[in-house]
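Hi there,

I know you've been waiting on this one. I reran it after we fixed the sequence typo, so this is the corrected version. Both the input and the resulting structure follow.
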Amino acid sequence: MTRVSLACLVATTVVVATAVPASQAYRVPDGASSVDSAAGSPVEPRQRLATATTASPAGEAATRDSQTAAPNRSASRRWVGTVIMIDPGHQLGNATHPRQVNRLVNAGGFRKPCNSTGTATNAGFPEATFNWRVARALKRQLRARGAAVRMTRTTNSYDDWGPCIDVRGRAGNRVNADAMVSIHGDGASAGTRGFFVIRPSDRAGWTSDIYRPSARYAQRVKTGLVRAGVRVSNSYGEDGFDVRGDLGTLNWSDVPAVMVELGNMRNRTDARHMTSAHYRKHRYARGLRLGIGGFLFHR
């Protein structure tokens, strides 16, 4: 997302699927399967967040190297009982449902479109798919350590749209999440490269209760990504941070929340990283997991 265009940022929040009204989010019948249209690989059927567990199914854990391997039992115990809300920003079907996603909603005392389409690499790899795949990799790493994980969407399909930013923003509140992270890719000019973390500004009646812990959370997420080898953005002040008061996803949250632009999809180097499964897992997802853990366990 660019600072000039809010299209990408508008739709980036974390939502609980159980809290999403059928009229506002998904168009796939219960039990039906969907398809990751950008890759042709099957995606799990839509499911209610309330059914999510902290267990890590054997079939879900991919081969891990020393960087992403699950910790020993005593080290992982600290994650048990934590709840993390992950928001894979946007949805592939936002582009095919303009009436629904352009509908204005309350974004925190003002009105903005329900959602947006997101950006893409120059070769056409959609941001929605990038967000989805990083979110899935992060979910696996967190669940392997004992955390309960909730996601704002359970499909990546052109048949689905939303949820809206106000619903996403309230998602963490409804499950009493310890932290929420909204995952995105930027769509800036080609010379911009690297990640930055967006935290909420101090808005009375909206984010005044979370802006301080969210600032600490943002610092930990930046540290985690740097530790994982991800480059800090050479734009947006070049310090790896941005502060926003106009994002419904952050404004509606009552739990510590950040949005992360993990790279610029219009930059050749970032695009190569963002389309690499290895980089998404061992750099982006690992860095986010380190950042979340740093915030929860080293306050």
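Quick highlight: The longest strand covers residues 179-186.

Best,
R. S.
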